[in-house]
Design goal:
The structure is a single chain. By secondary structure, the chain is of the alpha/beta class. Helices cover 47% and strands 20% of the residues. A three-stranded parallel β-sheet has the order 1-2-3, covered by helices on one side. 30% of the residues are buried.
Length: 79
Amino acid sequence: MEKQNKTVIVTGAEIGHTGYAIAARFAKAGYNAVAACLDKNDAAASADAIRRDFGVDALGFGLDLRSESDAVGLFAELD
């Protein structure tokens, strides 16, 4: 993957889960990351680990993307 100044949004991004591995893979390639999962503390821990381990920008959001209002809120926050 070639970095083109992009950010990836990954759900299920708790450390130890598939979503985190996907976010880490993109971060290793230089992409910034948004780690989203149900628990805000898990999301924050994932974002902290990505920033520390890969030196990219990362944000963590605790939300439920099955909820339309949470999904809209995420994109409003990122805008």
